[in-house]
């Protein structure tokens, strides 16, 4: 009898040990994080893998450790997906070198910091790498696959309005085509510098457009190269005119070498949309767009308010309909803003207005604004047929913090211009939230070679 008892005890122990081991294994499995795929030129050439779209899930519970996400996840108790919460879907774009996009986690975490949502990352690195023209052939197939997943989520009770797609570059058009497949019933699509090459002339069926979701917003930062130059959303923010960004090198000749390490350097303009968006999510300062017909008009100070939006300028970020409270919501509304070259990218728009007495010969003046160790210089060509000049500057601090203005009469190259009489020199900030009076200095004569400066004595009022 004692022998039998011992066997039983041993068996119990074995079971115990087995279940202990299983427990440890299960825990280890749960801790292993999913990641985006990557591919190599060799693998690509051998056509070993085709599209292989996979999905990753991040939530506030697992913001550092992505879970693989499939239809089955919806019924798995270990899945962090919560169908009563809204879902953000991140879609990357073209991958020239087959590497995984490095910014995905940062964007997901920035979103999760602001909203308690499911973040689903679409990984289509296999279909998005190397030959751009072949990648463009893949993007609709990727969209079809995503739509199958969305359909399944709908069957499990998720509402189409609760989805917000955020697509970078070509990913914006993938999102647009998902939107087309759902007949515009998806809640929102945000395009971060939607891809331009092979899309600009496309039919709206083939590219992102306002009919793809209930609300479509886009940020344009490289519309003369990798980005699209036409408006594609309800609102389209063109940063610094949408072409060239401050702090990005302006070396266009290098841009044909996209397969080489200079790539990262060349796409600086293109990726700026993403970095500005992430910074806007951080919420340190508002990035507001001013409606205007063209960038030229904007720079000439012809557009300084948001009266068409009842005074509320649309902002980059997650606020509903970009903060637009009027209805119907406009379509393809171009919005302009200037930014600085590094996070958080916000700049103050300062309008400089000069009125001079008529000149005999054209001349040039240099205007410098200063605040302690900050400064901004602007050159203006004065013509014989014009007496009023308006120009917009991006300034790092508010109007009320400007300490001084300096004017320098640099004359013209071939003619020694004498005095220039300025009837007025005025500075104002827009969009004006506080309805401040412009700062003006009147009736000054400035001789060539004798710079003039004026100190402002002012304090910023607290509202
Ligand atoms: C892609 O990555 C996942 C892990 O995140 C892995 O399971 C899968 O096998 C990878 N795909 C390929 C084709 O290597
Ligand atoms: C690429 O993926 C493989 C697994 O498929 C992984 O071992 C490797 O670290 C990844 N490389 C990079 C740069 O992420
Ligand atoms: C799912 O989300 C809802 C709404 O945020 C919340 O009330 C609920 O507790 C969540 N469920 C789980 C299992 O976390
Ligand atoms: C957002 O804020 C976090 C800290 O709060 C910072 O680490 C991160 O760099 C910021 N991101 C951007 C894009 O400004």
TrEMBL record:
The lineage of its organism: Eukaryota, Metazoa, Chordata, Craniata, Vertebrata. Belongs to the AB hydrolase superfamily. Lipase family. It is found in: Secreted. It catalyses: 1,2-di-(9Z)-octadecenoyl-sn-glycero-3-phospho-L-serine + H2O = 2-(9Z-octadecenoyl)-sn-glycero-3-phospho-L-serine + (9Z)-octadecenoate + H(+); 1-(9Z-octadecenoyl)-sn-glycero-3-phospho-L-serine + H2O = sn-glycero-3-phospho-L-serine + (9Z)-octadecenoate + H(+); 1-hexadecanoyl-2-(5Z,8Z,11Z,14Z-eicosatetraenoyl)-sn-glycero-3-phospho-L-serine + H2O = 2-(5Z,8Z,11Z,14Z)-eicosatetraenoyl-sn-glycero-3-phospho-L-serine + hexadecanoate + H(+). It holds the Pfam family Lipase. This is Phospholipase A1 member A. One of its GO terms (biological process) is lipid catabolic process. CDD domains: Pancreat_lipase_like. GO terms for cellular component: extracellular space. GO terms for molecular function: metal ion binding; phospholipase A1 activity. Residues 40-345 form the Lipase domain. Its main location: secreted. It comes from the Eukaryota. SUPFAM superfamilies: alpha/beta-Hydrolases (SSF53474). Ca(2+) binds at residues 207, 209, 212.
